[in-house]
Hints:
The protein contains four helices and no strands. By secondary structure, it is mostly helical. The longest helix has 25 residues, at 37-61. The protein starts with 11 loop residues before the first helix and ends in a 22-residue tail after the last helix. 0% of the residues are buried.
Amino acid sequence: MMANEVADCFDCLASLQGPRTASIITKEPTELLRIDRDQFHEVLRASKLQEIARKQSFLRTHPSFHALPEDILKKFVDNAVIKDYKPAEMIIKVGRRQWTT
């Protein structure tokens, strides 16, 4: 399998869902990166926890969210999406009621 030819990653769904659904046989010398299922899930958990903490910290700095009860703040955090913008990039256009995506 050549990188970017078919896929850069295989067996990823098995890491998330359960037993493998395919067999892979090499045709030439191949170097692979292996991450055990438990380690894979630990990285996902840690990443998710960092993202939650970042969102919660950001929202708590804003007066509108500062005094919200934890359960309400959690709902905002669960639905918030972090999006980075470049300098001079338009975020809200005059006359529009929603954010640009």
